[in-house]
Amino acid sequence: MEARSNSYWEMLINRSVQRFFLLFALHQRPMHGYELAHTIRDACGGCCEPTDAMIYPALREMVNGGYIDCRDEVVAGRTRKVCRLTEKGEEAYRAAATAWQHMLGPLNRAVDAALKPSRKPAMAAKCCTPAAKGDRK
Hints:
Layout: H1 6-28, E1 31-32, H2 33-43, H3 52-64, E2 68-75, E3 78-85, H4 87-115, H5 122-127, H6 130-135
Antiparallel strand pairs: 1-3, 2-3
Helix pairs in contact: 1-2, 1-4
């Protein structure tokens, strides 16, 4: 995948955003994997579609790091692994929120600069207006 493609950047962004929203979801309350996927999708406004391939490796990594604790519980008659943030996980969530907060301003400015229409010289812009075309008659 090439850095010039949108899909490359979306993959990198989604991975980071989904992990942050995983912490956010578990900060709200304990959840099982299926519920986490829906909560993350909703929190992202639908821009990220978390898959099992994202959720479960991230959970495993965070369990191994001591950020999340998962236990078997009966939910709606089914045994599911319900996950909750540990104290260390709450600290990680606050640290991630602080990092994102510091990035939002610069990120917005960089995105705005990338998406602004290119500035054209004043003469080029003026020659393309309807009044300017009428002046040529």
